[in-house]
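User: Please run a holo structure prediction.
Assistant: Happy to. Please share the sequence and the ligand.
User: Here you go; the ligand is 6-O-phosphono-alpha-D-fructofuranose.
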Amino acid sequence: MKRKTLSRYLIEQQREHNNIPADLRLLIEVVARACKHISHAVSRGVLGDILGNAGTDNIQGEAQKKLDILSNEILLEANEWGGHLAGMASEEMEHMYEIPNRFPKGEYLLVYDPLDGSSNIDINVTVGTIFSVLKKPEQTSGAVTEADFLQKGTEQVAAGYAIYGPQTLLVLTTGFGTHCFTLDAELGSWVLTQEHMRIPSSTAEYSINASNQRHWAPPMQTYFSELLAGEAGPRKKNYNMRWVASMVADVHRILTRGGVFLYPADARTPDRAGKLRLMYEANPMAMLVEQAGGSATNGNIRILDILPETLHQRVAVFMGSNEEVDRVTRYHQHS
Ligand code: P6P
């Protein structure tokens, strides 16, 4: 059976759901093409002279890898001229990116983490690109401002990630399920390889950086101790643990076989709601997870219902199999 290309899938989705107008299809295709470029750059490793630190820090105060900067530039250059965007924002840039006046402007806002998990780059472990698509607010007539990006995750019209692992995959939702495309590197095409990914409601696998355990709040301590207690404890089953320290890899595993991803707030940074960023990590992943039948909260409310206050706002993240997300959220709500 001949597999569908990304373009054919998007065109057929538009016919069926009338939810992917030409400019949004162009945006998704351009981002997908940029991810092919990033995948190639990542795979070059030492040969591409792009490993290691760039010698600069991003707005998060994190050392930037050369590939963080290169990936960001690839996405900027691929998208700025197409006429489909009103603006872009990135983990690697303090402020939003205005489309240069020499190019036409469109209706969409692209928010992304160009290379998530980049601390894994130098050890050849899976990394990825996460992106979120919003519409420019109706009431904004002239140039967009950062305030125009501060929309709830429920406003996303598309979300996805590319994962640069043993295979290069693109996982995408436009509001009608979460679907997976595999890069056919010989043809340079993204081909549909899994429609309607589903997260089982129950799981025996959790994903957390347990080295932070002593810094967690009581509800998280209780939930985690019950996981560790296994079948002798109140959960009456043994759990397995996985932590890649690359959100794209951990969430992809959960979309593929279930599980729960946990990154709680901790006492070391009481001024921060968590480590992960709302606009370009938690929100797109939450949309993908919910579209696959899972759930995603910050321990109190649905991640997609959080009204952002700042572009690089951080959030606690609990997402994946419903039974686990419901329980850990309940423990926080009743604390
Ligand atoms: P830690 C990568 O830096 C990242 O933003 C996510 O991709 C990943 O899940 C998390 O941080 C890893 O955090 O504290 O375990 O290094």
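The pocket of 6-O-phosphono-alpha-D-fructofuranose is lined by residues 116-117, 119, 209, 245-247, 250, 275-276 (CB under 6 Å).
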